[in-house]
């Protein structure tokens, strides 16, 4: 399988209640791909965000990463203005996007679910299921059949 550069998008200032899940998903992705935004999974990153960089520096860095990535993977269970912006930017520049939403009462924004561009939207109930979705879909994107997952 081709090693993809992945931009993993998930809530930071929108709330960090799902940070442990982000960490698990990122760790899984890193077994076969490069995750440009691995800091999203850091459990010590708070809703304050990154303090070593200015907002302008974060903006410039993240736009650069969006430009050079092969695919955007967005975990959207926790609503986030930043993730919405990143998804719109990915659409604008034609990047493939995979959207994960944990099954529950939260609904994906109509601006995302109603957009024809975002066809790869997946609801999952467990981290394991999300990993299986990612493995399958990234295999399609990289143009290779993904290997069978070990149970």
SSE layout and pairings?
Blueprint lengths: L4 E5 L9 H12 L3 E2 L19 H14 L2 E5 L5 H13 L3 E6 L7 H4 L7 E4 L2 H16 L9
Parallel strand pairs: 1-2, 1-3, 3-4, 4-5
Helix pairs in contact: 1-5
What does this structure look like?
The protein has 151 residues and is an alpha/beta fold. It is built from five helices and five strands, in the order E-H-E-H-E-H-E-H-E-H. It is globular, with a radius of gyration of 15 Å. The chain starts with a strand and ends in a 9-residue tail after the last helix. The model has no long low-confidence stretch (mean pLDDT 91).
Question: What distinguishing features does this structure have?
Answer:
151 residues, alpha/beta, five-stranded parallel sheet, 5 helices, 5 strands, 39% helix, globular
Shape: globular
Strand residue percentage? 5-15%
Helical stretch count?
A: 5
Strands, count:
5
Distance between the termini: 19 Å
Ranges where pLDDT stays below 50 over 5 or more residues in a row are none
Task: Evaluate the radius of gyration.
Answer: 15 Å
Q: How confident is the prediction overall: mean pLDDT? A: 91
Helix percent reads 25-40%
The largest pleated sheet is described as: 5 strands, parallel
Order of strands, main sheet, comes to 2-1-3-4-5
The SSE order reads EHEHEHEHEH
Determine the structural class based on helices, strands and strand pairing.
Answer: alpha/beta
